[in-house]
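Quiz preparation item.
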């Protein structure tokens, strides 16, 4: 397919903060230098808050940006019926995990497997499984917090590190932390193949069936993204 030529002056990337490393890697690989506006990943805890921030961010973008490249998924319906005043291009995926699990040009709205927890480069430190358990214990007390934590992960059997090639997921320090997280949720640690293909295509203008392109005046919907069953 013929790639769309994008001007750095008129193009901006709107990215979930959990995708920043992969956005940077995609831009380096495709030799683009678009400005990046970050959406805090913590807002995913409440899709309504994420939706509000998306609306605020879109409204605050300078007028010279004509095309917005969305480096995230639909993410808890936070993009549902967002009105658009400029061209927006977004991957047809339910969330950022599915985005990174793509390895070819075949569209998939959801590539996650039941019972699998997925680890990425950004799931460390304050965003690690260990940090989550510690927060629950602080908020509710050790025993109740531990019980809540256990219930949250009761149905998981596997912890999969997504190998996208954009970060060193085989380094000793990363594997040690990942194994600790897997042990906490009583899961078997392993690797699953992923890639940075979708983001590379996004920033290079190679928008095929894996992307939704919306023009000013249109709205983002689950149906348009292919995330709801056909009637």
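Solution:
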């Amino acid at each position: 397919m013929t790639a769309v030529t994008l001007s750095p002056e008129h193009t901006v990337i709107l990215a979930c903060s959990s995708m920043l490393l992969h956005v940077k890697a995609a831009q380096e690989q495709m030799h683009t230098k678009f400005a990046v506006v970050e959406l805090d990943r913590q807002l995913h805890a409440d899709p309504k808050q994420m939706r509000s921030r998306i609306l605020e961010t879109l409204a605050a973008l300078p007028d010279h940006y004509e095309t917005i490249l969305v480096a995230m998924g639909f993410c808890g319906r936070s993009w549902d019926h967002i009105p658009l005043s400029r061209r927006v291009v977004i991957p047809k995926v339910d969330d950022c995990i599915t985005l990174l699990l793509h390895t070819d040009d075949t569209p998939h709205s959801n590539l996650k497997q039941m019972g699998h927890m997925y680890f990425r480069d950004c799931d460390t430190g304050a965003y690690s499984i260990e940090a989550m358990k510690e927060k629950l214990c602080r908020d509710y007390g050790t025993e109740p917090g531990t019980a809540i934590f256990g219930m949250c992960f009761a149905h998981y059997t596997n912890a999969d590190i997504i190998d996208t090639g954009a970060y060193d997921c085989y380094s000793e320090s990363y594997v040690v932390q990942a194994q600790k997280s897997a042990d906490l949720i009583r899961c078997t640690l392993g690797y699953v193949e992923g890639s940075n293909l979708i983001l590379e295509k996004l920033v290079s203008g190679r928008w095929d069936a894996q992307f939704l392109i919306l023009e000013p005046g249109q709205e983002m919907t689950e149906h348009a993204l292919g995330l709801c069953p056909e009637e």
